[in-house]
Fold this sequence. Notes:
The chain is of the alpha/beta class.
Amino acid sequence: MERERPTALVTAPVRGEGLDKLEELADLVIDPWIDHRPLRIYNAEQLAERVAAESATLLVVESDVCAGPVFEQPLIAVASCRGEPNNVDIEAATAAGVPVLRAPGRNADAVAELAVGLIIAATRGLIDADRDVRNGDIYKDGTIPYQRFRSWQIAGKTAGLVGLGAVGRALRWRLEGLGMQVEAYDPYADDATCSLDELLAVADVISLHAPVTPETLGMIGAEQFENMRDGVVFVNTARAQLHDTDALVAALASGKVSAAGLDHFVNESLSTDHPLTEFPHVVLTPHIGGATYDTEANHSLMVANDLERLLQGGTPLHIVNPEVLITKG
């Protein structure tokens, strides 16, 4: 007997080869959160209502909350298009026997590219240089740009990566390609090269790529900044909770940190009068590291491939709760 074709509610952005495969697997209801102005993120009750309204048995999400009433629906699977599906209540999904899929490393190249951009923008004064051109201040205060924007090149310097997951590895080869010596600290990576203290002592550029856990929360504080090399460049494209922002401001004010690039702030915002905005060699971006169409194509294909495996009776490569498959079996 032929299995009934499932309906998939897709509230994540999907594209490319993965979208083509999803269309082969299921009838799609595509309504990405990212296309809505103003922003639309479903809470658990709203998402459950939408699942029921569409008679969906597959759910592909990125930001909507999957908890409580969502798992009262007759779902075959939930696919979260995130490296860590922190928008999904895994315990509730497992109790309901619903497999949860994820998309690890989907944005690794995108975030690594932004990290390179932040390093160069912060150390070469690109933001101020652009502003001078736009404002007609090329010869500001009787100087020429060559006087104002001299800096050290990053080739020949040492980069220290804190965290050697998908993003850290993607950044490592890029920085090596730019002529940097790269050291890494990660207690869970066999190919990490040094301890955190050793990394702080030798790195000219320090870039954070660790997840936020009880052991990494606030891991870079006043003591760690003090132990860095004078004039170090500090980059965080992971989460602001990894470092003490007040300690960073103090290190910038003292000159211990000469430049910084930050792509995340607590509560996803930074007040316009925050001290970080006053430093000319600090480049601030609003959590856009993974904001590429390629990220969407990557997670679409990973999710589609794993849904195909699941629907064909196999084991998905990126399943968070494989025990539900044993229970179903």
